[in-house]
Amino acid sequence: MTNIVAAIANDPLISAIHAVDEGADMIEIRIDLMNYPADSLSSLFRELSDTVQVPIIATNRMQAEGGGFTGSEKERIEILLSVLEMVDAVDIELRAREEYRDRVVRRAKEAEKSVIISYHDFLRTPNRGAMRKILSDCFDAGSDIAKLAATPHSYNDALRLLELTLDYASESVCIIGMGGYGVHTRAIAPLYGSALAYASVGYPTAPGQLGIRELKGMLKMLSPSV
Question: How many domains does the chain have?
Answer without folding.
Answer: 1
